[in-house]
């Protein structure tokens, strides 16, 4: 067992550096369902099997036929799936689901592959609960009707649903999830959580243990910059009515104050004290007042946060517990994150300082943990249902919590509920990605009416174009959209970023898009819309 | 199989199936690219890669499976592709593209060259070869979720070297040998130590105390040198180690006790610094198992073994174990054999982890986990299949534009981690015209170099300036002194005698001009020499008008450098084959965690973000692009060069 773990560590090294071991764990616990092992479908699955999802199930009732080969290859553009090509070029394999499963399995023996030789419609008729078991369902090239039916089943079961469609050089992805909560959102510009503006008791006494004036030079040049800033901030506070340096001018004055603290050599020139330089450099970010972001405030004010029941997901129980902490022990602040950046200091001083933050963070987390426990008790659940590990992770990321909610497919497709504003306002540029959205939806209608895609047969091209135009017009009319769609939008298909998104959903790290992504390979651009 | 005429115009479909293309690199991007090419209908493909397959490739390089580990990437990639597209005509080379066999004539065989590389040296070289052969080049790179594709066409666009890349970070030899102050110094030292003990000895990679430290006064250095330096110094580290039979305890005590005690005698060094604390093997073992436990044992939760930081005693034992393993690996290879450091070789990685951490401890630094040291020592750029798939798809689309004769339509395309404020995940920008001052693609490339003609050896001119800095493979140098004196010849044996002479010995002085030719790259560069006595400490030469100050935003903090690590080194694995080029030993100058936990993210990304926004507003496009370009290439060749 240990050996497999080590070999996994080696195999997945490059990605562990992106999403960490708990991200990998989430991936390995995931069971993804792919409906239709088409070119784009298998490409998506390939890119999930390689990094090692736990299991996949392919649902596909299609037989491999010669016509299938012709149709698909003909329409498939430069990026198709290797597996798919093998599947359709191998006459011994008759069922797409089985063939694709076997080939995908070969890519990574850690992944368990399953298949169901059945059309999604049949499954929806006979056993709609079949789909409840998955962490995520990916539907590729599904007809509109099937999409809506499946969409509503998954919506009610709160299973994320990713609708993918590729056509010519364009691609479309729609994420349908009632609620997706993110603990580790990996923000780009996160500030450290240092609390220098309102040091907690342990930090205060730690700062006091330093005496910059009285210490030896050796210690002076190895004092962590956090201590330096804190020391001079005390001075600053006493002169400035306990107000932080706010604007550029004040911050500059504060920097000057620190600069004056640099030791001087016998000849009067300043010593080379890198830690002081570091302190000066960090003034800007270290002095940001500690406060809770409006996004996190909003989460605290959500209904789910107020009404905790036995069914409430862990995220909301944790959010509520943190809210209790903020309102009580935290004195208005989130639990401390507990990490400090690397800095110039000798190890002893650094580790001592690190421990001050770490221990406070552990204390805060254990207070939150008590809140979790009593919340769970109040709804008749045991405290084990949320692990200490999860509580710690949640506290550490409390400042970055995110909740993504998508509209349902029914809302997007309904004539009453369609998001007209988003469509109309995005139609300003005549060649924008929104046009492609409308085109793809029209092609869908075409398929619904004719059971095939337009332009499949050379001899029908002219007729197909006018048929497709009709579809576009009826779509626009139905939604009461007064927009102009140019005629020259029939192209090729392209596949890809689905997997990036799937990983975001499964690992619950990073923030997925909300909710529609359109790729335009003609201009190599892409856009996201909220539909 | 059905042709793509349905989606590609007939003429385009024809040229796709008729043309010859070259794919340089069969790694992360290369695998996806090969698949895309054959499925688009490309029939004649040549692929070259000098690497062999490693386990850590398997999470994304889907043409390879476990059973292929150790085999040639190019060869296996070819075989796997032929399995699903037997009609393709693929030629595979298990070789370096910098090998002189691949000359301009070779490059002229292709309609199009596509780079799927992971290091700057090879990118520079292919750039020049394509300029010389006038063949369009598609350049690409990925790092984690980020990626980039661009097109280079002689005379029409910027070449790969038009924009100065941030210069490579070098560490003075005395910092490495005497006064390390950051973990990276200890990691570099440990890698040098590996080579000194088990690999190819390199005079630039000394690890013993340096008595020529400029911080020591002349007399002091002399005194210590004559007092204690006597016999030991004359024997190379390797010979000494061999004479002890690679006794790990003796090695330990020499490196972490005796050498440190010797450093302590240079008391001038420790007046302003915290003095190092020597370690003693026996004493450490007496402290026993408590110190062998991970420091963060109780905090660690479920995190993986590699991410723990052990105690000093733990690292002393790891040191001993890894020396033992490496000793027998070396013995198995037979007489005169050498080991090549490879971050994916467990024993080699254990050795560097242990030695670096012991040294960090001695010099009062916080020790680091094997996971972190691996990313610093091995220049690891995180990599996943999806980003590579996206980028490979974009490469093919650019290729189709080139084949349709629409080079003007080509773009540089950036792949973002998150949709930008204009909701775009993929951002195309127009290609810039060539830079008139480029020392590679200008019509008469010229450059000015500041150096001390009395102190610069001809060999240094060849290796450090012409090869390393200006990316030449086999330079010939002629002095424009009216006589056409040949200073360096690429013919073996012709000018070797010049190597150990100074430039001034050949009459080179302030204002001298050197004509440098690289026949392989079909590249001529005129070098103007400026004599300078006062170069910065540890700087051997300076290129005028180059330098990082011209680069848009030079990294100024460790955190920024971390961002800069988000570059385009896709498959960061070093070559496991023997003819590894020098840059495979790169050390990435990043601070620590590659893993982007929220706590390691820093506001310094703001500068990048801001520029990107500027770009989005379609103002300052060029600067935004440059910023990103530099970012994208900053990582991949931060060779550490010890300067004595």
From TrEMBL, chain A:
GO terms for biological process: protein neddylation. Regulatory subunit of the dimeric UBA3-NAE1 E1 enzyme. E1 activates NEDD8 by first adenylating its C-terminal glycine residue with ATP, thereafter linking this residue to the side chain of the catalytic cysteine, yielding a NEDD8-UBA3 thioester and free AMP. E1 finally transfers NEDD8 to the catalytic cysteine of UBE2M. GO terms for molecular function: NEDD8 activating enzyme activity. Belongs to the ubiquitin-activating E1 family. ULA1 subfamily. This is NEDD8-activating enzyme E1 regulatory subunit. GO terms for cellular component: cytoplasm. The keyword Nucleotide-binding does not apply. It comes from Esox lucius (Northern pike). InterPro entries: APP-BP1, ThiF/MoeB/HesA, ThiF_NAD_FAD-bd, Ubiquitin-activating_enz. Pathway: Protein modification; protein neddylation. Residues 12-138 form the THIF-type NAD/FAD binding fold domain. Keywords: Ubl conjugation pathway.
Automatic annotation (TrEMBL), chain B:
The keyword Ribosomal protein does not apply. GO terms for cellular component: cytoplasm; SUMO activating enzyme complex. Residues 563-581, 597-607 have a biased composition (Polar residues). Zn(2+) binds at residues 159, 162, 438, 441. GO terms for biological process: protein sumoylation. It is an enzyme of class 2 (transferase). It is found in: Nucleus. The heterodimer acts as an E1 ligase for SUMO1, SUMO2, SUMO3, and probably SUMO4. It mediates ATP-dependent activation of SUMO proteins followed by formation of a thioester bond between a SUMO protein and a conserved active site cysteine residue on UBA2/SAE2. Pfam families: ThiF (PF00899), UAE_UbL (PF14732), UBA2_C (PF16195). Residues 615-629 have a biased composition (Basic and acidic residues). Heterodimer of SAE1 and UBA2/SAE2. The heterodimer corresponds to the two domains that are encoded on a single polypeptide chain in ubiquitin-activating enzyme E1. Interacts with UBE2I. Residues 204-225, 545-644 are annotated as: Disordered. GO terms for molecular function: ATP binding; metal ion binding; SUMO activating enzyme activity; transferase activity. There is a cross-link at residues 191, 254, 625 (Glycyl lysine isopeptide (Lys-Gly) (interchain with G-Cter in SUMO)). PANTHER family: SUMO-ACTIVATING ENZYME SUBUNIT 2, UBIQUITIN-ACTIVATING ENZYME E1. Residues 449-536 form the Ubiquitin/SUMO-activating enzyme ubiquitin-like domain. Residues 546-639 form the SUMO-activating enzyme subunit 2 C-terminal domain. Belongs to the ubiquitin-activating E1 family. The gene is UBA2. The keyword Ribonucleoprotein does not apply. CDD domains: Uba2_SUMO. Residues 9-418 form the THIF-type NAD/FAD binding fold domain. Its EC number is 2.3.2.-. This is SUMO-activating enzyme subunit 2. The active site is at 174 (glycyl thioester intermediate). Residues 583-596, 633-644 have a biased composition (Acidic residues).
